[in-house]
Amino acid sequence: MKRIFCYIFAAFAAVAVASCGHSHDGHSHEAHSHDAACDGHSHDGHSHEAHSHDAACDGHSHDDHSHDGHSHEADAHKGENSSILHFAKEQQQKIDFAIEKVQSSDFNGAVKVAARVASAPSNLTTIIATNAGRLHYVGNIVEGKSVSAGESLFSLDGSNVTENDAAVKFAEAESNYTVAKADYERKVALFKDNIVSQKELQAAEAALRQAEAHYYSMKNHFSNGKMVLKAPMGGYISTLFVENGDYVAAGTAVAAVQRGGEVNIEAELPVRYAAALTNISAANIELSDGTIYSLDDVQGRVVAVGRAANDCSMIPVTVSAKLDAVVPGSIVTLHLAMSLKQGDTRLVVPRTALIEEMGVFYVFVHKGGDAFEKREVRIGATDGKYTQIIKGLHKGESVVAKGAISLKLSQGAAALDPHAGHVH
Predict the structure, then answer these.
(1) Dist. CA 386–CA 300, nearest whole Å
(2) Domain hosting residue 292, numbered range
(3) What is the tens place of the pLDDT at every residue in 67-83?
(4) Strand duo 98-101 + 103-105: pairing
(5) How is residue 45 annotated by DSSP?
(6) Number of domains comprising the chain
(7) pTM of the entire structure?
(8) What is the CA radius of gyration of the chain?
(9) What interhelical angle do 198-220 and 166-192 show, nearest 10?
(10) Dist CA 138 CA 244 (whole Å)
């Protein structure tokens, strides 16, 4: 009885193994039942070579059917050209899109350093108290306020000061001018009668000119018994050194007035760059929003490179630029590019042409018309505006310099398009 049970169990196991090892995803099992086949024959006398599953598969050829009108032959053709993308002219015109030829450059990398923006000396001046007294603001004086050249900003009241009283000084200047003028006019009349010499007349004239200059200088800055301090140039008040109502001595710095225009961009580099700094070929300025300007863009130039290290073992570098997009005191990034040996060049592309995916860089190469090839490249040094291409491009090819991100996004949209492919 046990032996009969074992035979039955073995038969069921054999049928189960045969069923599990025979699976077709592409055709119906209703027309090819393994249960019927097992019931009608013995596996001992049945050759599996004569029962080839390849024959069953041959009866279900993918070449003989299509899925929604999309053949596998078309899929194979698309796979061969998967790196080619199409970006219509209409789409290009809707965005900031540009194509540039691959260029050659002699720059040999760049040093990237944080730099501070400072006003050029010609655009910064300090207002100085001309005499002692209590300082008062004229109107609403605050830092950042725009001022015009000659505008009254402060007054100095020296009425409670026994020494250097502005009112007393003005009275003395006026008196000296009146006396000098009368003396000169008298000597002119005496000179005509040959009573005084020409030398005496010239001395009287010189005294008059000096007294006159002093008097009118004070008169232009004197009002209602107080000295008035005016803006020496148009611009804005960058710094207030004295509070309203404070006492100041003659020569005290009261405020700084600054105007736009040229700025200095000041950086410091470690001494290990001393040799490289003697070979600066260009400089690019990168703002906090990512915008990059070359020196040509902002009428800039390298003003000075330090010849010695400072107390912190740093070498100062100063670049000037006419850049209204920055304000003194702000921080920018300075890319100082170095030159290769004379005659050596390397291929470069705009930094905006590069697309990064998982640490790998790509560019879109223009193949003509609206066709673009997504191509992997190996990059080298960058000066902030252009990046060296070590491998992947050839001189004379054209790449997407602006709009590469939009082209990449259109690639993703095409991948999601149900008409771009099919799923089994």
Answers:
(1) 18
(2) 107-120+261-339
(3) 444 443 333 333 334 57
(4) unpaired
(5) G
(6) 3
(7) 0.54
(8) 44
(9) 150
(10) 9
